[in-house]
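Field guide to reading this record: the first block holds the primary sequence, the second block holds the structure written as discrete tokens, and the final block holds curator observations. Each block starts with its own label. This record concerns DnaJ homologue subfamily C member 28 conserved domain-containing protein, catalogued under organism Capsicum annuum.

BLOCK 1 — SEQUENCE
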Amino acid sequence: MNDRLSGVIDVVNDRKLPPELRGQRDAVRSETDIINVVEQRIWHSMEEGQFENLPGKGKPLDLNTNPHADPAEDTLYRILSKNKCAPEWVELNKEIRTKVAEWRSALKKAWMHRGSVDDSKWIEASGSLKLQIHDINNKVFRYNLIVPFGRQILGLKWEKEMDRLKEESTGS
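BLOCK 2 — STRUCTURE
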């Protein structure tokens, strides 16, 4: 039973390969082999002039619709765009980037007071900055819930930011 199933899987996978590579599954070393065959086909087609008389040649692409997007989302984004509005996640991303830049600048300023005679400025500033990290990370969490798949971002971590700052101060 297992051998039959394995055989069927091999046949199905073999059919996924370009005709030039079918029956040679063991000879196909990597995805690069398949890419090379596809590139050869494209070059051959170009040499034969198969790309010369395509409809719309020389005309700008219609980028008003995204064929890969959900039609409802695409319509929504088009309406927002026509009314000069951005989706909530775009605006939230801008806000997060601004807040992170301001936060890092404040951390750098506070870092200068660390180790001085009066460490109280550093202690006070670092406490405030840790609270701000929490607020930024809450925005990141909200952003990650509403952003399209694959565009999620990471929040800030105090330890990583401190390591980054130490590297900057020693590397400069």
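BLOCK 3 — OBSERVATIONS
The CA atoms of residues 46 and 52 lie 8 Å apart.
The chain is about 65% helix and 0% strand.
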